[in-house]
Every structure is written in C-alpha cells, then in structure tokens.
Amino acid sequence: MDAQYGLLFCFHLVSFLNCVFILLKYIFLIFTGKKMAYQKVNADQRAPGHSQYLDNDDLQATALDLEWDMEKELEESGFDQFQLDSAENQNLGHSETIDLDLDSIQPATSPKGRFQRLQEESDYITHYTRSAPKSNRCNFCHLLKILCIATILFIFGILIGYYVHTNCPSDTPSSGTVDPQLYQEILKTIQAEDIKKSFRNLVQLYKSEDDMEISKKIKTQWTSLGLEDVQFVNYSVLLNLPDPSPSTVTLSSSGQCFHPNGQPCSEEARKDSSQDLLYSYAAYSARGILKAEVIDVSYGMADDLKRIRKIKNVTNQIALLKLGKLPLLYKLSLLEKAGFGGVLLYIDPCDLPKTVNPSHDTFMVSLNPGGDPSTPGYPSVALIASFSDGSFRQSRSNLTSLLVQPISASLVAKLISSPKAGTKNDACSPLELPNNEVRVISMQVQTVTKLKTVTNVVGYVMGLTSPDRYIIVGSHHHTAHSYNGQEWASSTAIITAFIRALMSKVKRGWRPDRTIVFCSWGGTAFGNIGSYEWGEDFKKVLQKNVVAYISIHSPLRGNSSLHPVASPSLQQLVVEGPSFLSEALFSTRATKIEEMDPSFNLHETITKLSGEVILQIANEPVLPFNAIDIALEVQNNLKGDQPNTHQLLAMASRLRESAELFQSDEMRPANDPKERASNRIRMLNDILQDMEKSFLVKQAPPGFYRNILYHLDEKTSRFSILVEAWEHCKPLASNETLQEALSEVLNSINSAQVYFKAGLDVFRSVLNGKN
User: Fold this and answer.
1) Averaged in consecutive runs of 10 residues, what is the pLDDT profile of the chain (771 residues)?
2) ∠ CA 323-325-327 to the nearest 5 degrees?
3) 67, 12 in Cβ contact below 8 A?
4) What is the bridge-based pairing of β-strands 288-298 and 440-445?
5) Which of 33, 258, 459, 534 has the fewest C-beta atoms lying within 10 Å of its C-beta?
C-alpha cells in the first residue's frame, strides 16, 4: 500500500509540474508577444514563430511517455477506478481563459494514454486554439487564477492520496502485520455439510483389506484441492495381527468358555460379532496358553502390588488389571518384574461417564511404545524389507513376556460371580474380586506377526517469508488388519475440510508466513507406527525446523464438553493442560458417530477451532508461545506436600524471573507493530520455538512422555517422572530412584532458566553492537 501511495503522490506532483510548465510557457508568450496555442499538429502545419524548443517532437514524446508510464503504473496498482467526480469536465474560466482538462489527473484507459484520445477528436485543433491575450493586466489576473487553482488541485490530490492510504484495506496484508479478518475469511467457508459428505465417503472404504485404497482416496482429494506435492511415504514394518481364531477365557471350575466380550464360545456368537472378537486383543503380547489363579491387582499401583505380594505368591499368576491412573506400559512393566505370567485387562464402568455403558464392549490396546519394533532407532524404509536374511531387523514378535488379553466388564462380572457393577445411593460400586475367593482360569492368546507396508500421505502449503519453519498438522487413516473404529474418518474429514478452506484463499494469492505440512498417518493403532517412522526418517530436519505439531487424532468422543490438550507454552491458545489420550481403542461404528453429531455441527466447530490455532501459529509474525506459562507450569507442578522440593522451588523462582524479564523486554515490544524490529523477529521466534526442549529427558519410564511437563492426566498436576519415582520407591527401602528423578527435574529447570537468560544476552549484545 505504501508503494501505491507513493505512486499517487508522484502522479499529483507530475500534474502540478505540468500546470507549472503551462504557466511558464504562458508567461513566456505574454512577454514575447507571441500567440499561445496548444495544437497537436504535424511539423509542416505549425504557425510561423512557433517555438522549436517547446514544441520539439522529442520533448513532447518524452512528456507523453512519462505521463503514460505513470498512468500505467497506477492502473496496475489498482487505481483504475480512481477519479475526481466532483471536478470532472469542470470549466475553470470563461471563454477567454485557458481550460484545464481534468482528464490529465485520471488514469488513461487506452494503450497510449489520454493524448491518443485527444488526437482522435475531430474538432481537436479548433477546440484547443485560443485567441491572443488582450492586455497584460487581464493576463495577470488569469495567471493568478491558474496558480491558485493548480495549488488547490495539488493539495486536494495529496489529501485524497492520504485518505486512500489510511482507509482502503489491502487484499493481502503487508509483511509484519496480520489482518484480523483474514482468519475469519478463511474459516467461514468451512461447512458442516461438506464434512458430513466427506465422512460418509470415507467410511465406505474402510472394509478394504488393502489400506492403499484409502490412502489413494486421500491423496487424490488433497491434490484436487490444490495442496502442493502430495505424496505417499511408505514403510515396511512388523505388525502383530489377530489370529483367525479369537482368544478365549475358560473357567476351570465349570469348564465354561467365553470370548473377550463375555459371550459363550459358540459358533453362533462368533458369526454375530466375528470382527469384534478378532480385534479384541493386545498387539505385541506374548502368545500361548496359561492356566493359573486370577489375582485382582486393581489399578496395578505400587501400593496394590506391595499389599498383594505380602499375602500371595504372584509368580506365573494372572493379574486382573484395571485400565487407568498410570500408563499401561508402565503398569505392565511392574507386573512383569513382580513375576506375573498373564494379564486380563478391563475398564471399570465406574471410571466412565454415566452416559457410557461399555459392559459388553471389547477393545484393542497396543503394547508398542512407538514405531516399528524390528527397527528401533532408525526408519523402516521399504528397502530393508528386500533383504531376505533380515540382517537389518530384530526378531521381536512380542514386546513383553506377559500374555495380555483385553476383556469386557461383563466378562469380569462373570469371573467374580457378580451380575454387574452395583450402585448404592447413586454411587457406583467398582468391580473387584473378593479376597477370600480363588478363581482359576485358562487364557489362550493367539496372534500372528507379519511384515506389512504402512502408508503415510503427506502434502504441504509452502510458507511465504519463513518456508523453512514447519507447522505439522496430523490425522490418521484406517490401516488394514486393525480395529474397525471410525475415529479416523472424523479426523480425515476434518483435516480435509480445513485444507479446502485454506487452499481457496491460497489460490487467490495469499500464503501463510510459515509452511504448513499436512499428514495422514498409517499404522496408528499399532503404536503410532507411521508417524513414528516418518519422524525417525526426517529426524534432523524436524528437530531444527518444526515449530509445532497439531494433532486431530481423535476429534470426537462425545457431545458434552470441549477438551483440548496442549503443551504449556501453547495453553493460551486452547486453555487446557496436557494429559494422556485414551489407551483403549473401541469399535465405534459410523452410525454411532452420526448419533453423537447428526448435523455435524460439532465437526464444523472443531475444524474452525483447530484451524484458527493452525493459522495463528503459521502466520503470526511472533509465534504465539508464552514463556511465562512454562514458568508457571513448573511452579504449579511443585506445589503441595512433596518431599525434597525446596531446591526445586528456588530454581523455579529464578526461572520465572528470567521468563518475566524475557516477556517484558522482548515479547511485549515484538508483539507491538509500532515497536517491532523485523531483524530481531527471527531470533526471537527461534528462542520461542525451542524453549520447551529443556524439559525433554533422554529416557522416560515405559509409557511416559519424554517432556516432563506433560501430566499423566487432568487430575494430576505434578511432574510425571517424580510421580513414577515416588511410586517406584514405595515398595523399596532405598530412595535412589527418587533422587535421580529430582536431579532430572532440577537440571531441566536450570537449563530452561539459562536458556532464557542466554536469549536476553544475545539480544542485548546485538543491540549494543549496532549502537
């Protein structure tokens, strides 16, 4: 817009100089007694005494070219509609004064400008022929009038240009500023009906045994919407699949055989729900048959195990374990160390909302912490699968020595001889096995391990000013041989709807400042294999260039409340803290999702909320990350009755001081366009991008996040590794594990404090160097 304002200013300046030129010529003719006339004629038609300098063809051609070039620039800058309607064709004097045709301050519409239009007028010569001035006094009055009018026109032109500059919005915001209406303009095109149509088209494909059909559908749709360089990224991985025959649980006392959902082991039951039976299993569990006593370990906490081991021998016994409170992989590691041989895993109805009744629901879990189990630490590219000797792979068909089988709450009720979870005074009674009773069962776990190709679909929108900074948006699609849930269809429909809205704006010339990478992951149900392998494949690039990851993994789980999850530095965008996602994958039918959101208005709302977060991170000049939120999160994690934390609290206080100083000295002026220094924005964003990396630990306990700021759940506001350390030390006399965890937390807080301080020092040194 500044360039257009400058052109407008130059245009009026040229117009004013043109008037001055005419005025000087008029004065010259007055004092030389020559007749003044503006006639555009050939050289052989000129009147005697005509000035060869003023009417020189080269001089006139130069003037014409100058004015045409200026008019062309203004036309290209979008001023073709600009004109002074109030002054159009205005007569500036009587018949004996010089007329100023105001067409001279309007952009030309013909290729050669206004002069060609004048040449094409038949009465051109007679119209612009004037009689000689009659007296010097009269000419002086006319001269004064012309000078006043020219000055007024010049000032009026400047005022118009200034008004246009300050009040006319630009279609594309200039660098460093963001139009507040831009995001709403993009998001308002998202419609629930489009999401519903996309969802229904996707769910028709999930029954295919070849997941490439779904991947191709997504790739074709994203490409048609205009997404750039959409491609497949394939990995050959080791998948643990259900056996054609479902697992079973048999009561030794009665000989009754049950499937995981609680139905008897009859042929009719298998025919009615064959898919649910097959996919109710724990991927990467040990395989085999185990006959042993069932021991109720509740949630498998350290206190539970300590209590049970005092009264019973748990070696090679079967643990009855509830899902929840601590990560499943962590609890299984404790059971494995304790000597258990098998685990029956279930969800207590008392831990779920009253509106949910999963009594007969079966579910799937994965015991894979992430990625291809046979290629830990490096990507499982398709080339590796071609080596028949398998020298690049580890033989890891199971990731635990335990036989693990998920079962329904109705089957648990049969095992403990209880009809169902009872209620007393509207309070739910948890399922539990009586201490004085013994239950012996035989559990059979059957799975098959195969090498399969997992496909990711990846495309992007290249950023305009910082194309090497990536915002990754991820959803997942159905993978063949996995549980037939429908959450993937919701997530894919939502991410596709946002791509459609975004690309409609991109096609009109706008681009975000940073690159947005859209990914649809494969193999998610088996331990986030597709995303994990892709991360290992591009590890070096991602560690340096990724700004944020926005997951649309499981967008719809109910219709009662909104529950977003975010890192501490991004809490100002979503208002919720980090917590674990559900570890159980249920068989959610397509009709069930449409029952929760029949109009798909919830899908539309989630798409718009997620889209606004994506746009802010991708397009704000300063990343919308908050340093103070991290410091506050650290202090909140150390509140309460926690032993040996006085040194941590002192370090957390210093971290908050550094964060507040960083916020006031750098973040505040950077977020003010009037104070913003463009050469410091990139440095500031680099600091904001990496500030949470101080809280990454090298080795986390099984099932825990490496980022120690992430909570175990929304009810726990303590450092996760400290929670694990306290749990670990409860059955032991030594507190060595706790001291190691405290050292990890102390080092992380100190590292973050030093990081903010170093960032401030860099800014100050740069500023001092310039001064």
Assistant:
1) 45 53 53 41 40 39 35 37 36 37 34 33 39 54 73 72 52 53 93 94 72 89 94 93 88 90 75 66 94 94 88 94 90 94 93 68 88 89 49 77 94 78 65 87 93 94 95 87 72 95 96 96 91 94 94 77 72 59 61 83 93 94 90 87 80 92 80 74 88 89 88 74 78 73 91 89 65 48
2) 70
3) no
4) antiparallel
5) 33
The one-letter amino acid at 626: N
Backbone angles phi, psi at 263, to 5 degrees: -80, 150
The whole-number pLDDT of residue 416 equals 85
Quick check: 319 and 335 in contact, CB under 8 A? yes
Structure tokens at 583: 């570890």
Q: Which of 453, 374, 386, 555 is nearest to 215 (CA)?
A: 453
> CA distances (Å), 412 to each of 90, 264, 329, 345, 433, in order?
95, 14, 21, 9, 9
285 contacts 332 by C-beta, under 8 angstroms? no
Question: In Å, what is the CA distance from 338 to each residue of 44, 297, 321, 369?
Answer: 115, 12, 14, 21
158 in the Ramachandran plot: left (φ > 0), alpha (ψ -120 to 50) or beta? alpha
Please report the DSSP string for 490-540 in residue order. HHHHHHHHHHHHHHHHHTTT---SEEEEEEEESSGGGTSHHHHHHHHHTHH
Give the other-Cβ count within 10 Å of 75's Cβ: 15
The residues, any chain, with a CB within 8 Å of residue 587's CB and separated by 6 or more, are 275, 276, 279, 361, 362, 363, 483, 484, 485
Q: Give the whole-angstrom CA distance, residue 246 versus residue 257.
A: 12
Query: Distance between CA atoms of 11 and 320, rounded to whole angstroms?
Result: 85
CA-to-CA distance for 100 and 91, rounded, in angstroms? Answer: 7
CA gap 739, 266 in Å, rounded: 55
Query: In DSSP terms, which residues pair with 306 in a beta bridge?
Result: none
Rg (CA), the chain: 38
Taking residue 686's Cβ as centre, other Cβ atoms within 10 Å add up to 16
Alpha helix (H) ranges present in 274-403? 274-278, 302-311, 328-338
In this prediction, residue 482 carries a pLDDT of 59
Contact of 570 with 624, CB cutoff 8 Å: yes
The Cα 372–Cα 396 span in angstroms is 10
Q: Which two tokens stand for residue 41?
A: 């004629």
Question: In the structure encoding, which two tokens stand for residue 127, read together?
Answer: 């119209």
The tokens of 110 are what?
């013909």
3 contacts 77 by C-beta, under 8 angstroms = yes
Give the global pTM: 0.73
Residue position matching structure tokens 């004013």: 16
Helix (H) or strand (E) holding 237: strand 228-242
Find the helix or strand (DSSP H, E) in which 546 lies.
strand 546-551
CB 633 within 8 A of CB 625: no
How far is Cα of residue 159 from the mean position of the Cα atoms in its chain? 44
Nearest to 382 by CA among 459, 451, 448: 451
Structure tokens of 771? 């001064």
Q: Which two tokens stand for residue 479?
A: 């993978």
The token pair that represents 196 in the structure block: 């519903």
